[in-house]
Amino acid sequence: MLALATRRLIAALPTLFFIIAGAFFLMHMAPGGPFTKERQMPPEIERRLLAEYNLDLPVHEQLFHYLGDLAQGDLGPSMTYKDKNVIDIIAEGAPTSAMLGLSAMGLALFIGGALGIVGALNQNRGLDFLVMALAILGVCLPPLVMGPVMQQLFGVQLHWLPTGGLYRDEFRFEYLFLPVLTLSLPMIAIISRLMRASMIEAMRSNAIRTARAKGLPELRVILRHALPIALLPIVSYAGPALAGVMAGSFVIETVYQLPGIGKQFVLAAQQRDYTLVMGVVLVYSILIIFLNLAADLLYRVLDPRSRTP
Predict the structure, then answer these.
(1) pLDDT the model gives residue 170
(2) Helix 261-270 and helix 86-121: axis angle, to 10°?
């Protein structure tokens, strides 16, 4: 298992390089720059700032400088926030983004999995049709639409929950409830459909027929024998799903004004803060690589057939 993980990580290095290079060139192709303001600054000050951040060099040379600093663990200073390094800015927003993403993923796995099992055990009945209708509705309504709707309904009309921001003095989960729910809805829909289809297939397998023939209780057959088989597609989906959570957090953190990495990325892109944008891209790329690796390894643990001799 360790050898497999090592090979996968080594194989991911070229992918990581192309992600960094592609993001670097695309960012520099965008119009404007970090020092392009509404008020024109004196030319000598602009030249000094460009030279300080190596922006007066050709783009490929800037990339080489960036990769050299990156090899030393230096993500560089922010071009927008004075006297702050990119690492420090990302570290400030990481706890909020991690709590948002993990909570949304956990909620999606729990509710989506439960709905999928209920639909599978009541196939072609009223509960099954209701689960599928809710799943289709969840897929059709993206977080960008559901966020303002939930803010209006639960925050403005009913006054049940805050519409955004975080409580500064102490942690209070009600400030994250709406963002977590909004971010998890599409995943709940997808996971419920995957679990339903996988559970139906598992319940028709020979292993389940054998378990029933032994006279085992139906609940034990479902939980101990069918559920591990049905979880395999969910585990395969977990890696891309977490990547979707991270991409969705950009929208959610902006809509709900949460001080996370996603909101920092949006602001950095608007202000052409090259180093901060690259830092967020790098952190998210590494995280996605590790999450996909973890999902693959977990799949091999759950399904012995996928292991190589």
Answers:
(1) 56
(2) 120
- Domain 86-302 CATH assignment equals 1.10.3720.10: yes
Report, as an integer, the average pLDDT of 28-34: 78
CB 282 within 8 A of CB 70: yes
Residue 235 half-sphere exposure toward CB, CA atoms < 13 A: 17
Please report where in the chains the tokens 């996968």 appear, as a residue: 8
- Whole-number Cα distances in Å, 128 to 109, 176, 217: 18, 30, 23
Q: Is the pTM of this model over 0.85?
A: no
- Say if CB 68 and CB 78 are below 8 A apart: no
What are 85's strand-pairing partners? Answer: 77
**Joined tokens for residue 219:** 């609940």
Q: Which long-range contacts (CB under 8 A, 24 or more apart) does 52-60 make?
A: 53/79, 53/274, 53/275, 55/274, 59/24, 59/25, 59/28
* Interval 131-152 mean pLDDT: 85
Phi, psi of 74 (to 5 degrees): -110, 115
Percentage above 70 pLDDT, the chain: 93
- 3-state SS assignment for residue 77: strand
Token pair, residue 284, equals 């998210």
Position 298 confidence tier, pLDDT thresholds 50, 70, 90? confident
Place of tokens 């959610």: 252
Sign of the CA dihedral with 25 first, then 30, 32, and 33 last: negative
Q: Who's near 33: CB < 8 A, 6+ residues apart? A: 55, 272
Structure token digits, residue 89 = 């800015």
- Burial label, 137 (beta-carbon count in 10 A; 0-12, 13-18, 19+): exposed
d(CA 84, CA 91) in angstroms, rounded, equals 11
Q: Are 302 and 228 in contact (CB under 8 A)?
A: yes
Q: Mean pLDDT, to the nearest integer, of 4-25?
A: 88
Q: Which two tokens stand for residue 157?
A: 């009309």
